[in-house]
Model the fold of this input.
Amino acid sequence: MIRLCWSPDGESILFSSRRENKKQSEIFPVKLDGTALQKVATDKKLSLVGPSISPDGRYLVVAAYGNAPEASILLIDLSNQNRTVLAHGIQAEPSILWDKH
Amino acid sequence: MNKAIVLALFISGFTGALPQTFAQSDDGFGAFGIKRLAYVTGPGGFFSSHEDLWIVDTPKSKPRRLAEGIVAVWSPDGQKIAYCAHEGWGTKHIVFGQVQLINADGSGHVQLTNIPGGACPVDWSADGKKIASTAGALILGLGVAFGAYGVRTEVSWRSRSIARAQNQAAQSGLQMVTARTRKR
Done:
């Protein structure tokens, strides 16, 4: 299951893709006219898929796959790229409900 | 090499363990503005006998198994989850998933669709009164493969089963919305 998400401003869509001959998937935004923007999350060893971004645009939650079929849920603070593990052992993208209040 | 190190390396290689530089959250998901978190897991990946839907309330709390299924989508108020449940995982008689609805506490399960080819939830409307879902993806493929007869059959099946799904959803106070994926 490939999950996309809207950017908080509704101007772009975030998705995961493998580009530039890399083995790992990274998270890219694309504008609605198809213009690609600068990638927002990458890792040297882990594939990042299933993005979900917080309403304020600060946090990005992804599933991070290593060598095993199971993944971990990572929260990335886009202001400083700090990462926090929210859960281990998933097999699909996490389902996040952001608090919009 | 020390047996403990060998074991650790084996486990790390087997599980694809994450680099230890990642912090483990201790503050609860609310610190990040996350209201609800669910995920899917199972003992053996896509060929396992089942896949389970779990809810985890805080990083340190024990995950709660909610149901057997995949593709969980939270209702806007965080009180319900729409998800997709297959039958016959790991057998030759797999039945493609149908949209299910369950309360976050595990009560009130109801199957919303019974569409040939399966259906999976995609998203809720902002007011929590509608669920958008896929419908009959496999049948669409068969329709193309078997030509006009298959297409007509598929359209007939889809129309009747989507109507049934809409009636079922209405009994749960919801409106089922389906989108056509091709021109007729």
